[in-house]
Amino acid sequence: MKNLFTLLLLLISTQVFSQQWISDSTFDEKIYKNEQCMDCIVVVEFWVEFNKDNAFKDWDKIKGAKYFRIDIAEAPISKKEYRVRMAPTLIVFKDGIKEEMFKASLDLECPVDLEELQHTIEDIKKADKF
User: Fold this and answer.
1) What single-letter DSSP state applies at residue 74?
2) pLDDT digits (tens, 9 = 90+) for 105-116
3) Which helix (H) or strand (E) holds 100?
4) How does pLDDT run across 66-86, given as a tens digit for each residue?
5) How far apart are the two ends of the chain, measured CA to CA in Å?
């Protein structure tokens, strides 16, 4: 029983600590000036605590893109710049340019599932090859 508890604790802590958060002060660095990621797709989820149950749940399954989460309550500059009105809102960037935006509606449900987001990422990558 103790081993099972230790394993569960390890899995939970790994998931919590591997989530990458950004803020207004780190947004540009992660999205626009990321020298480690040339030709990189970046997905940013604008998130809020009171609606955490409707957040994008499959972020760890996204392939071919970096993923960050930003708390809109702590990021008024980014919220205003991207006209985020509801959370969750997900924005897909390519080389620092906004390519696609998925906005929550009044029901505050996550506006995109893993399959649709992954398809969008693949389409953006393909479009760059022409």
Assistant:
1) G
2) 999 999 999 999
3) strand 97-103
4) 999 999 999 999 999 999 999
5) 56
CA angle 102, 12, 56 (to 5 degrees): 5
**DSSP symbols for 9-61:** HHHHHHHHHH--EE-HHHHHHHHT--TT-TT-EEEEEEE-GGGGGGS-S-GGG
Number of H helices, E strands in the chain: 4, 5
CATH of 21-127, one of 3.50.30.30, 3.40.30.10, 3.30.1300.10, 2.60.40.10: 3.40.30.10
Residue 69 three-state SS: strand
